[in-house]
Amino acid sequence: MKNLQLESLVLGSVSTNCYLVKNQETGALLIIDPADHAERIMQKITEMGGLPEAILLTHGHFDHIGAAAELKSRYGIPICAPDKEREVLSDSGKNLTRWNGNGYTLQADQFLHDGEKLVLAGFSILVLHTPGHTAGSSCYYIPEESVLFSGDTLFRCSVGRTDFPTGSMSDLHRSLHEKLFLLPDETDVFPGHDSATTIQYEKQFNPW
Predict the structure, then answer these.
(1) Helices (H) and strands (E) in the chain, counts
(2) Does the reported pTM lie above 0.90?
(3) Contact status, residue 34 vs residue 67, Cβ threshold 8 Å
(4) How far is CA 206 from the centre of its chain?
């Protein structure tokens, strides 16, 4: 990683990875999948000396969005989410917050499309729509840093579940083989749960 400082927090009832991505030159910072415990995220941002610029969601499940609204309010920053995830975000059954006991919905400020190139915190970020875990699941790829944030699409030697609303195993298989496994082998992969991996490792050892 050249200009990127990356910190992560494991948060919430199902141990979700929340990533804080800081531009070391400017201090600008991105929050990816703020799972829960906004106060812990804010404390880490303060420790990093970061200046939050935006929140990026890989998908709309409860364990990836729990602190988003509070962080948006605290820092006055937009919530960015995949366009095809509107249905999940706006339905407390489909986003599983009702299952978690406190059903709610979330409205994004900016909806993102497959192939869109974002410039946030000084990074050029490619949005990759990777349906399967949910219909709108997406990954965020930073080519210059050789980094991919894969949400619940790709895990170390595994993949995300497809038995939740809008999930599809056939879509997930296509997302892996037609998008993610076409990225450079040296790409570091930071998933929504469990430990980091690389594209090369997953192409070689992931049973999917």
Answers:
(1) 6, 14
(2) yes
(3) yes
(4) 20
Instruction: Give the span between the Cα atoms of 154 and 195, in whole angstroms.
Output: 11
How many C-beta atoms lie closer than 10 Å to residue 40's C-beta?
16
In the chain, alpha helices (H)? 38-48, 62-65, 68-75, 86-89, 169-178, 199-205
Q: What gap in Å lies between CA 193 and CA 152, rounded to an integer?
A: 7
Q: Decide the pairing of beta strands 51-56 and 79-82.
A: parallel
Q: Please write the tens of the pLDDT for every residue from 57-81.
A: 999 999 999 999 999 999 999 999 9
Distance of CA 101 to the CA centre of its chain: 23
Residue corresponding to tokens 């749960």 = 193
pLDDT by residue (tens digit) across 172-196?
999 999 999 999 999 999 999 999 9
Structure tokens at 134: 């949910």
